[in-house]
Amino acid sequence: MKMTRFADKFSDQAGINTLMDDLGKAMAGDQPMIMMGGGNPGHFSPVQERLRQELLKLAEDPQAFSRLIGNYDAPQGEAGFIRALVELLNDTYGWSLTEKNIALTNGSQAAFFMLFNLFAGQTSEGEQRQILLPLAPEYLGYADAGVGPDTFRSLKPKIDYLDEHRFKYRVDFDQLEVDESVGALCVSRPTNPTGNLLTDEEIDRLHALAKEKDIPLIIDGAYGSPFPELVYTPINPIWDEQVILCLSLSKLGLPAARTGIVIAAPEIIRTLSGTNAILNLATGSFGPQLMEPLVRSGELISMSRDLVRPWYEAKMHKAVETLDTALGDRCPWYLHQPEGAMFLWLWFPDLPISSQTLYERLKARGVLVVSGHHFFPGMPEEEPWQHRQECIRVTYSQDDEQVARGLEIIAEEVVQAYAGAVS
Ligand SMILES: Cc1ncc(COP(=O)(O)O)c(C=O)c1O
After folding, report:
1. How far is the CA of 326 from the centre of ligand 1 (A)?
2. Where are the strands (E) in 193-300, listed by range?
């Protein structure tokens, strides 16, 4: 049957679809796999137990239960949750949000799809706009989220060498050009895949550029502050009407509840809610209703700061220690300074095989990672930059022993790949 260009966009064997398919098949195969590939948060019992208690309360209260399953929310999202969140964020950061500044979506992935298409594409004056990603590598889930062609363009970073096995990407402001074709800037902070935290200074400069051009600065806080707060280096979260801040309940431990939160100027929230009504009719209210008491009491923030962050931070330190021991000085390697999120981003300079081949070899040994070349949305394939073929992303959210074993196998394979080139 003949379908449209819109259909081609989603059926293309590109990016996220192929990758998710491959990871899914590997997990469903006969061989036991160490899953260090996806972005699934760990199953953290203290959080799960706390939410189980809230769910039991909802189930035992006939009125609350009837509201939980029986009503469509308004397209902007569950009003009680939004009200509570406005208060919590204003109290925490001294912002002056009102209920007109927040909309809920079915996961933040859905919010990005809507936002990117609101700000990239053809304007009513006929101009063509793009989303500029000022620092690639960037989240691969953005890649196919534009309905039109060329939704994104992205910029190579500056590389700061911190010591013999650590580095950090920085926005290359000398190369950053925000011209009339840019409809919005977008960064994930902390960054998926690198665990980078754009510094306050970088964010201030991006914010100033956004203000000068009167375009939004979209900050993807899926791993950020104030929840789930997977932030291991202090930063200053910002919001004003130039910023569209996207948050999510997923990485706190509720990816199945599909709750995304967008904080923006009222005009953007109105348009986003209208788009949401057309796409979804209403946003699911399970996540918002389950979490509302924890938002009202502020427990959402203390849970993130006192439970979730230390848990991930300890996992990060264990993983880094294992990696330092396993790789030592046995081959050239760098780790991006792990400042947040749940990933290690490894760079193997002059790796004799591509990162995709390394991914395949690791998969054959029962370890799933993600080849780094997927994480350059908006960068043309022909852009000559070998670095893109030299990195992998490793998730450390799962069981520590499995992660350690996986990292040891990665080290063996990489050392062997370099040795193979020499012999
Ligand atoms: C950086 C980033 N942003 C957004 C999302 C989307 O998350 P969700 O739709 O579950 O809120 C993810 C998921 O992995 C992510 O890594």
Report:
1. 30
2. 217-220, 243-248, 259-263
Atom of ligand 1 nearest to the CA of 191: 1
pLDDT score of 12 = 64
Q: Which CATH class is domain 1-423?
A: alpha beta
- Pairing label, strands 391-395, 343-347: antiparallel
- Specify the ligand 1 atom closest to the Cα of 259: 11
pLDDT at 383: 80
**The pair of three-digit structure tokens given for residue 207, joined into one six-digit string:** 């914010």
Residues whose beta carbon lies within 6 Å of some atom of ligand 1: 39, 107-109, 139, 141, 188, 192, 220, 222, 248, 250, 255, 260
Nearest CA to ligand 1 atom 16: 192
Residue with tokens 């009125």: 63
Rounded to 5 degrees, what are φ and ψ at 103?
A: -130, 150
DSSP strands (E only) in 107-224: 121-122, 128-133, 152-154, 158-163, 166-170, 182-188, 217-220
Q: Say how many C-beta atoms besides its own lie within 10 A of residue 158's C-beta.
A: 14
Asked if residues 260 and 248 have their Cβ atoms less than 8 Å apart, the reply is yes
| Ligand 1 midpoint to CA 175 (Å) | 28
pTM of this structure: 0.96
Of the candidates 263, 134, 258, 264, the residue with the CA atom closest to the CA atom of residue 196: 134
CA gyration radius, the chain: 21
Residue nearest atom 2 in ligand 1 by C-alpha distance: 222
The list of the chain residues with pLDDT below 50 reads none
Among residues 379, 365, 261, the alpha carbon closest in space to that of 32 is found at 365
- Using one digit for the tens of pLDDT, what is the confidence trace for 45-55? 999 999 999 99
User: Cα of 184 to ligand 1 centre, how many Å?
Assistant: 19
CA 24/CA 308 separation, integer angstroms: 27
Mention every residue, 6+ apart, whose C-beta is less than 8 A from residue 347: 167, 333, 334, 335, 336, 372, 387, 390, 391
Phi-psi region of 401 (alpha: psi -120 to 50; beta: other; left: phi over 0): alpha
